[in-house]
Amino acid sequence: MCRRTRGYIFFETVVAMALLSMSALVIQGALRQAIITRGQAQDYTTARFLMEKIVGERAMRLPLPEGSGSGRFEAPHERFRYEWEVRRVTVPLPPVPTFPSAADPAAIEALLMEIEAQLQDYMGKLTVRIFWERAGMEFEHIGETLLRSELFWQPPPPEEETLP
């Protein structure tokens, strides 16, 4: 007697469809993450170019005074905004070399005094921050550069008033 089994075809089909559905969800998630990552990479590249634009604009206004500012970019980069700041940073002075003995000590002393007069104990620091939003998340890219002391404007010290 031959027995026929029924119902295995339906059960196998349901299991196969469940595996296929899970595989499709995993593939869709991987593709979604790849698209998001590509968009973020494009945003960071755009932010870098916009940062260089702001640094270039600030550098064209030499000497730079201390201060800060902010703004938004025009289309097609209206999602991006920026802040910049220029401030003074103190740097240690290098030691001035000494020469043990020389034929003309007066000339060497004059040269050392000239070198020492040109040394400054400060530099300017330009910081630019670019902000943008993607998919409801806030992103930030920061860039900093140092400015030689002659490119950084310092207001003159206030004159002391003498009382009569």
Question: Which short descriptors sum up this protein?
Answer:
164 residues, alpha+beta, 4-stranded antiparallel β-sheet, two-stranded parallel sheet, 2 helices, 40% helix
Please provide a written account of the structure.
By secondary structure, the protein is of the alpha+beta class. It has helices spanning 8-59, 105-118, and strands at 64-65, 67-72, 81-90, 122-134, 137-147, 152-153. It has one domain. Helix content is 40%, strand content 27%. The chain has a four-stranded antiparallel beta sheet with strand order 2-3-4-5. It has a two-stranded parallel sheet with strand order 1-6. A hairpin with a 2-residue loop joins strand 4 (122-134) and strand 5. The longest helix has 52 residues, at 8-59. The model has no long low-confidence stretch (mean pLDDT 82).
